[in-house]
Specification:
Elements lengths: L26 H14 L1 E4 L8 H9 L3 E4 L3 H6 L3 E5 L3 H10 L3 H10 L3 E5 H4 L2 E4 L5 E2 L4 E7 L10 E6 L1 E2 L14 E6 L1 E3 L9 E6 L3 E8 L2 E4 L7 H12 L4 H15 L17 E8 L5 E4 L21 H10 L4 E6 L11 H10 L7 E4 L5 E3 L2 E3 L1 H11 L3 E4 L1 H12 L9 H9 L4 E6 L5 E3 L1
Parallel strand pairs: 1-2, 1-3, 3-4, 4-14, 5-7, 15-17, 17-18, 18-21, 21-22
Antiparallel strand pairs: 5-6, 7-11, 8-10, 9-12, 12-13, 13-14, 15-16, 19-20, 22-23
Helix pairs in contact: 9-10, 11-13
């Protein structure tokens, strides 16, 4: 799958190494030097248990860092570098922070001037509050309220896809991003730039209106987009936070300054704005040997027409997903076409595929097949429980098939009134509307992703 330059984000691999010498004449001094190096390559991660944080972990590890998880308030205070990948609803996130007594240590940490990086909801929570979840107070570090996109503008909400950044000033964080480069967004709520928060706003992005896409003040930084899902550019942005003084970061910053001086930082034209996405959809099922393979066929008949009628094998799921990512795919979707036959929580091979793919694929991963409520061994399991396991294994979105049809039938039978009982509603309530897509197969077996 080859893409034109206008269809893809530049995913040229970036690599750098920071070497420092520790000349120590004694064994104790050498041990202290090693310990210092180890601490310098450690990141503290504030994971409060919602959504796919595995991708953030994999991105951090790919850049050569180890991770220490926050398990108590003092872990925040002790952190040297703190990353907060917020996922889900504003109210739920604030509830968890308050229940675990994280709010004051987090505010104190950010105000102390130590390096902080928030992602998506991790940016929104820095503001005074949000209209989401019925209206909730935030951390109140940045003036302004977070609110839903204006649906009267005729654009679909959530805002999902690859969009450009309009940088308002030079920075280490966004130094690697050229004006026409795109990063991955998925959100329904946004903060707006205003005079009161102008000293924080680093970049804006347009989706019917200009909203805040990145902030930076001192060592505190945050992005509305997901760098861990923005390919090689996203990894470079993460490196800009982790290693602002690296040779690569300095070179990128110099290039960004040159672009701004040349008047290229805010171009007008077709290269700006939301781009069409190229999504690689992989049908996955077990072959007769029990191995998961990528396959295609006439609807669900994926066996060879001749010979021993083996399952058609187009390759290994993780290898193909990594190949599509390397060739420029903006998203990868796995559909387990026999998932409806099995107990979803025991689908260990598919969970393993997600876990392995998330270590090599730094764009969004969607998974479908068998995501529904079910009963096993005398217990009932909600579709939310199944979806949560997939999210923890590396999925960014889940695809609902037959359950979506049943939900639609119930909706219309009830006079177009929802009751919160469907898989779509339950998963959306916890992980956000952007975390659920609906897939349907027509008579020609063409897959539609809505």
């Amino acid at each position: 799958m080859k893409l034109t330059s206008s269809q893809r984000v530049n995913r040229t691999a970036r690599s750098s190494s920071n070497s420092s010498s520790c000349l120590a004449p004694s064994q104790p001094a050498r041990q202290r030097c090693v310990a210092t190096r180890a601490a310098a390559k450690e990141v503290t991660l504030l994971d409060y248990g919602a959504g796919n944080v595995r991708s953030v972990r994999n991105a951090i590890k790919k850049l050569g860092y180890t991770i220490k998880d926050v398990s108590k308030p003092s872990d925040i205070t002790a952190a040297d570098k703190l990353i907060f990948p917020g996922v889900g609803a504003f109210g739920q996130a604030m509830d968890v922070l308050q229940q675990r007594n994280y709010v004051k240590p987090l505010v104190d940490y950010i105000q102390s001037g130590k390096p902080f990086f928030g992602i998506c909801l991790g940016l929104q929570l820095l503001f005074e509050g949000s209209t989401e979840s019925g209206g909730r107070e935030g951390l109140a570090l940045i003036p302004g309220q977070v609110s839903q996109f204006d649906t009267s503008r005729g654009l679909p909400v959530p805002h999902i896809g690859w969009n450009t950044l309009e940088q308002l000033r030079a920075s280490d964080l966004l130094a690697a991003a050229a004006p026409s480069d795109r990063v991955y967004f998925v959100h329904s709520y946004r903060a707006m730039p205003q005079e009161a928060n102008a000293d924080w706003v680093l970049s804006t992005t347009n989706y019917g209106e200009d909203f805040v896409s990145a902030v930076s003040k001192g060592a505190a930084m945050a992005t509305q987009f997901h760098p861990e899902k923005s390919g090689a550019l996203g990894l470079a942005i993460l490196r800009g936070f982790l290693e602002p003084e690296s040779d690569e970061a300095r070179a990128a910053a110099a290039a960004a300054n040159a672009r701004q001086l040349a008047g290229l930082a805010c171009p007008d034209g077709p290269e700006r704005g939301l781009a069409k996405r190229v999504i690689a959809c992989l049908d996955v099922r077990s072959n007769d040997s029990g191995d998961l393979v990528v396959t295609k066929g006439d609807q669900y008949d994926v066996r060879e027409k001749e010979g021993e009628r083996d399952v058609r094998n187009l390759g290994k799921p993780v290898e193909l997903a990594a190949r599509y990512f390397d060739e420029g795919a903006d998203e990868v979707a796995f559909l387990n076409i026999t998932g409806f036959r099995d107990c979803p929580l025991e689908d260990l091979p598919m969970l393993g595929v997600l876990q392995a793919a998330s270590e090599r694929v730094f764009v969004p991963l969607t998974v479908g097949g068998g995501i529904r409520g079910f009963s096993a061994q005398g217990r009932d399991y909600a579709a939310l429980t199944v979806a949560s396991e997939y999210f923890r294994s590396g999925a960014d979105k889940v695809s609902i098939g037959s359950d979506a049809v049943l939900a639609a039938e119930e909706y219309y039978a009830a006079g177009c009134v929802t009751n919160g009982s469907t898989a779509i509603e339950q998963i959306s309530e916890v992980y956000g509307k952007q975390a659920v897509v609906v897939s349907a197969v027509n008579s020609a077996a063409a897959r539609l992703c809505v």
